[in-house]
Amino acid sequence: MVKLRLREGEAVTDAVKRFRKLVEHSGIKKEMRRREYYEKPSETKRRARRRAERREQINLRAN
Length: 63
Description:
One of its GO terms (molecular function) is structural constituent of ribosome. There is one protein chain. This protein is mainly α. It has 3 helices and no strands. The radius of gyration is 18 Å and the shape is elongated. The chain starts with 11 loop residues before the first helix and ends with a helix.
């Protein structure tokens, strides 16, 4: 949960910018996009496996 308190004399536009940044950093936006559509468990596993493979490729290149 993201909480935001307005600072003394802070403009609303500045508070909205801070709020957006907090939401982005907390991962709420990413989670919302992920849950927007149902994903079969097999697709979830496939995506995780591909992510791991990409990570491994990057690690091999770095070494």
